[in-house]
Amino acid sequence: MPFFNIIDVVMSELEDKYADIRPYNDDEVTASLSRLMNDNTFIDVIAKYNLPRFLSSVPFIARPLVRSQLRKKWGKVSTVEDVQNEVAQYLDKLVKRTTSKVTFSGLDQLDANQAYLFISNHRDIVLDPALVNWGLYQHKMKTVRIAIGDNLLQIPYITELMRLNKSFIVKRSAKAPKEMLKALTQLSSYIYDSVVGGNSIWIAQKEGRAKDGFDQTDPALLKMLQLNGRKQKKEFGDYIKELKIVPVSISYQYEPCAIAKAKELYHKQHHGEYVKSAGEDIASIVEGFSTAKGHVHLAFGQPIESKCDSAEELAKTIDRQIVDSFYLHPGNYIAGGCKEAVIDSPDTATFEQRLACVPEELKPLVLAMYAKPFHRKAEVNTNSCEH
Asked: What are the beta bridge partners of residue 203?
């Protein structure tokens, strides 16, 4: 490679040091949409879920139909904001179709002009951050950049869709110590630069969904955030305050993918390690989108201003806000054995009907995931730096 070409490459990397993990910029949207339009696998998935079976099963008919509709729909989409507006329209339909209502609390206490690092409990792969964005969008606040593990990006069209929708990549596949440290340091720096630069971030409180209903922040996540602070030679507590951390508690009346989660837990209990089958995460995403969720509530907490001097202390502070503000639905009270709660008969009947559809060997696990938030409220009110 000629010398000046090498210089150009080096300068380009310096200017865009997050190119391999960041979401797409405005000038990359059109090319990404074009790649999606030319991806037969993506087109076939759209056909499967949007066309009658007799049409979707015949690719030479279905593909031109889908592409024609997408050209009409995406014809004027050329910026990240355009994409967000498209996603908002889709979410509006999804909320009306699969929930009884989605409610929010705490958003009116946040500064619409301030960027935050939202750390939430994690129950659904895509819906959790999507509904956080739905709340922000409705309150005329900027939507978040979304942390997503590279384990979900094994299919090219999924990568395109996620990066179009303001998702940045967490390199979970890095295993060698040096490789892991490099990836985590880059991630830590990206999150800090985003927040300081006026772009809010969403990240789950721990790796993976809480399949047993146990919402608990992993201190390792918070130590990752501090890697960039250490590079800046800042104390943990001082650096964390700059990130404007806001805990978010997400509560679904009907647990997304409850039976699938229980199957995984059951397998681990009886057979040890559980290895996901190919496409299992995608199936979970589709199930999360398509099945009934009842009432969903998102409680946005207060920015953590108190000085937490360790990751463990900060984790307990985040947990206290998430658990305290978790909205308990009738199923949580029923599964938790609460005798004092006043529960309408229709709510009891609906919960029992849903439980009747669960295989007998999985019922204790499903009941436990509903009961855990109820019992957790009594467990977390000590040892936080805000208590």
From this structure: 119
